[in-house]
Known about the structure:
Blueprint (H helix, E strand, L loop, with lengths): L1 E5 L13 H11 L3 E9 L14 E6 L2 E10 L5 H21 L4 E5 L7 H9 L4 E5 L5 H6 L5 H17 L2 E4 L2 H9 L7 E3 L6 H5 L15 E6 L9 H12 L5 E6 L5 H10 L5 E4 L4 H9 L3 E4 L5 H6 L3 H8 L4 E3 L4 H9 L2 E3 L5 H13 L1 H18 L2 H13 L4
Parallel strand pairs: 1-2, 1-5, 2-4, 5-6, 6-7, 7-8, 9-10, 9-12, 10-11, 12-13, 13-14
Antiparallel strand pairs: 3-4
Amino acid sequence: MKVLYFHQHFVTPRGAGGVRSYAMARKLLARGHQVTMVCGSFVGGNSGLNGPFAKGLRRGWVDGIDVIELDLAYSNSDGFITRVLTFLKFAARSVGVAFTERYDVLFATTTPLTAGIPGIFARWLRGKPFVFEVRDLWPELPRAMGVIKNPVVLWAMGVLEWASYHSAHRIIGLSPGIVEGIAHRGVPHERITLVPNGCDLAIFSEAIDPWRPAEVRPTDLLAVFAGTHGMANGLDAVLNAAAELKRRGRDDIKLLLIGNGRLKPALQARAAREGLTNMVFHDPVNKSRLAGLMAATDVGMQCLANVPAFYYGTSPNKFFDYIAAGLPVLNNYPGWLAEMITQHQCGFAVPPDNPIAFADALVEAAANRAALKAMGHRGLALATKEFDRDLLSDRWVDWVEGVQL
């Protein structure tokens, strides 16, 4: 079958960001299917295409995937209105592609929620099978964060959410809470399945050159957060812990934030203002370069703002990268990942908004490197048994194949 795949933020391993869609597309190819990937452009990403745009797009083959990249630049640093307009433009252009391309199944993945719009049109106006993948619960998350307060906008998003869910023949949720949230909107459980984010074990097990930023000494305990520096990530919690470590005189523990995002300049300014020399900032890197950093890292930090909707309603890429690299994870919010860390003893689950507990966990990690290594080994065992991307992508393709009418 031929799958028309929409993911506005599609990334290959050449770029910085999650490669779930790339891995799923490659698995479709391995199972004998054809894939056309429709995406936009964004800072740090890499679709694999390098040629010029013509009439607002460029098209070419990337590792066997037919990629259509629309000339719609996106950055997490953009203002709210700019981002919304980019989302809507991508959705409108995507509807045009959904009406002109030849395909057997349309697949769309969030975020943003507007990703479902071409699927709605394809289902009802072209009679095409539609599979929808939900990575975050919208509008629940922006409402809970207070990012969107306008009742008309929230109502419209709720209508779009309902229409996307009820237009899809099958739905994939990335966390248990997402699956339950979809079912709560009236979708029968038999049309929903759970396929969480996975671990790219091949990338993190390859022979790689370990590296650390120049500011980090070989003997320092290095804790890394790798991801977007946005409001949802709550990275002031890391700086609060850094301030507590500074108060204790622990300059042997370094906290590294690697990535980009709207709040990065503010975080850097705060670190400079407070003299947090134990904080290190770094530009985003591609997957192979990230694997080299992880090989020289002691702890992976999984941080989110203290918003209850996050507890069971997210499936962060970085958590799965950490355990794939054999790193213990320091998690600072309750929920399914904290429960998993505690159950499998593969890191530290600390309460939210508690810099003392955060700092205590890092001090404990620095004091007992042998126990830290054992946590990492247990995390890697969990990654191999439960979250191997190759196994999960087979489950994903099975679900997509079953939607053919």
